[in-house]
# Entry
Amino acid sequence: MSARGLSLPTDKLYFKIGEVAEIVGVAAHVLRFWETEFAALRPRKSRTQHRVYRRGDVATLLRIKHLLYVDRFTIAGARKQLRQAGDACPMAPPDAAYVARHSLAKVRQVVDELDALLHSAAEIDPAAADPAAYLRAVGGVGALTDDPAAVTRALVDRPPRRGDDRGDRR
# Structure
């Protein structure tokens, strides 16, 4: 079974049973039971003999969940349907709590990166440049092309942004 169409908020290729239980939204013992009932489920074992599921296994488990919980097949009916239709069987969506947790983790990571960036650049404020004030200070757009030395001076001696209480930056 391929993992085509499986949309997870992670790029991981291999998952532990606890992670898969969280993604599928069922308990780990349910996954172990499904392994005994569905030949399509054969997770690999790690060196420490823990189950390691591939993305394709997760897709298969989501198909099984859809067949059992949404289409209301029995185990035997779901097994037959999975054998006949395979990848054509619809998948249940990943558990909403799992998706929300991973989305929140990504948002927190971005916020932390932005916070670090803001604190590291506390003295350098690129937003302090006011393009209109800059053009007025150098004498308009024409002055930019007429006197290159004036442009250099104007870039160094940029006026502070309105409302900026830091004063002149010379």
In short: Strands lie at 14-16, 44-45, 51-54. The longest helix spans residues 96-120. Helices lie at 17-24, 28-37, 55-70, 75-85, 96-120, 131-138, 141-146, 148-156.
